[in-house]
Q: What sequence folds into this?
């Protein structure tokens, strides 16, 4: 019976018979695509930790938005998360520029401060008279299964906007990632480009709140980009591959979370979609680390073994001669 149920659910998933399934797959796929592309820029710019700070800084923005309007409104939640995420990015940038504190120390300070503030505000909201209906805890770890058409549409708009900005400023972003000093010498507004990149990270983070949550969103930003880096040294190829890996993680993770519960009777509530998406991205990363042709561990080991074998053969023939 379990096998029959699994086959039935898998068939319904592959044929996209359920409207809710189509919505969630579309939303998580587009989210993974946008996060992969933007995350590749952040990783190549060496701003992965800043992305972590921005994603964690979204939580106090959500709580403040709830306290401001006195109810649940996803649009206001997005605005609040975007504002606090940008504030976190600007704080890191200004403190790093005006002081001698190292960037990693500043980033760690911002992560702890903003996320701690967010947890405190979230607890305060939950303890209020109507706080049990706020549901702010779902934004910490995400709940893609509850995604509605409006959420998927929002993600689609955000993804299109992020991809459009990257396409228009592709040359500027490439130079910013690889030679910031040269870009500054050419008169380019590198500081504003840095803030724009962090703004794109904020947009992706905010869009991913319903699906992945603030804690795991950084993994969806960084992991596909880190995996793509093993496959190529070309900037454009890494960005495209990162987007593909992110989209595959979103779609495959959503599909697995939809069908896996039928094979495990103890998991009455099902597999959470956000963590499964991140696990799929991690598996793609592990596969890249092991098997990528140019930088993978196994191909590199085989090349070294072949080189050692080739090196021994001439010396053996020479000694015998």
A:
């Amino acid at each position: 019976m379990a096998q029959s149920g699994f086959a039935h659910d898998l068939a319904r998933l592959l044929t996209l018979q359920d409207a809710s399934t189509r919505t969630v797959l579309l939303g998580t796929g587009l989210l993974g695509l946008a996060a992969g592309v933007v995350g590749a820029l952040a990783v190549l710019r060496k701003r992965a930790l800043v992305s972590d700070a921005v994603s964690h800084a979204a939580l106090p923005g959500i709580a403040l938005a709830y306290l401001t309007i006195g109810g649940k409104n996803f649009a206001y939640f997005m605005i609040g998360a975007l504002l606090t995420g940008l504030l976190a990015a600007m704080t890191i940038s200004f403190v790093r520029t005006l002081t001698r504190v190292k960037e990693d120390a500043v980033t760690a300070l911002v992560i702890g401060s903003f996320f701690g503030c967010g947890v405190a505000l979230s607890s305060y909201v939950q303890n209020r008279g109507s706080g049990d209906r706020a549901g702010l805890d779902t934004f910490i770890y995400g709940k893609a299964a509850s995604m509605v058409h409006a959420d998927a549409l929002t993600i689609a708009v955000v993804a299109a906007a992020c991809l459009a900005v990257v396409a228009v400023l592709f040359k500027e972003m490439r130079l910013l990632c690889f030679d910031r000093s040269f870009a500054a010498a050419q008169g380019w507004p590198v500081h504003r480009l840095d803030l724009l990149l962090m703004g794109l990270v904020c947009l992706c983070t905010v869009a991913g709140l319903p699906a992945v949550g603030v804690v795991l969103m950084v993994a969806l930003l960084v992991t596909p980009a880190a995996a793509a880096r093993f496959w190529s040294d070309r900037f454009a190829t890494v960005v495209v591959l990162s987007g593909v890996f992110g989209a595959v993680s979103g779609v495959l993770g959503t599909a697995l979370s939809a069908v896996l519960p039928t094979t495990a009777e103890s998991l009455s509530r099902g597999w959470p979609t956000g963590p499964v998406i991140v696990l799929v991205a991690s598996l793609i990363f592990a596969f890249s680390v092991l098997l990528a042709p140019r930088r993978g561990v196994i191909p590199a080991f085989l090349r070294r073994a072949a080189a050692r074998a080739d090196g021994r053969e001439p010396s053996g023939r020479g000694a015998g001669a």
User: Anything to note?
Assistant: The radius of gyration is 23 Å. The CA atoms of residues 257 and 271 lie 5 Å apart.
